[in-house]
Here is the input.
Amino acid sequence: MAGKLGILAGSGELPLRLVEACRAAGRPVFVLAFEGIADPASVADVAHAWVRLGAAGDALRHLHDNAVEELVLAGGVPRPNLRALRPDLRGAKLFARIGLRALGDDGLLRAVITELEGEGFRVVGVDQILGGILAPAGLLTAARPDAEAERDIARGLAVARALGALDVGQAVVVQQGIVLGVEAAEGTDALIARSAVLRGPGPGGVLVKIAKPGQERRADLPTIGPGTVAAVLAAQLRGIAIEAGAALLVDRAALVAAADRGGLFILGVTA
Here is the structure.
């Protein structure tokens, strides 16, 4: 049997899905949940500890005390500034070492993974624990993109690639060739909400979400779930294009069913 898995739990449903997978496999698990970010449901009836995001020393102590062997980073974590983060001594030393790499999500996560591996933990990706969670290529829904939506997808892919190369974000919303918004520190849900305000007349836009070029695949892969579908429908967009083989589908059956009810297309594309 695999050794004890530690889950660094951010927001969303992924941490709970990982806990459920460990239970089903009979694998021991420990959840390190970030205060004010993780859903309390993700730690119900499972060994866990709550830590402040900047308390790196406390986090490492909990992981070692609970004999964690493997680690997986799961769920969203908002990016606070250093003043709001209030790093402890261990966290301050980490930020001093990584310097400008902390300005981008991927650079920061690579540094965090290196730090965790230096502590003796093996860091794995969500897709190594949850089989079948990666998006397949092709159409997942009954609805399909028309020629105009396909042009919006192509435009969105070009913009998202440029955005990702700068380690800024993973998602963009395009309507009839016009970029309504790009993702930065605010996250995908806020991007979708902002794009709804800027939506023009005519057919709705498309959310395009892909991994950054050369991204560290063990953390922060692009993710969509039923909540994403609900937000896209509320914003009157008409489809989602995600990177096949790189995007995570949380609760695939539920998100596809929700998309079909709303007449939304979901398409796995090559970035």
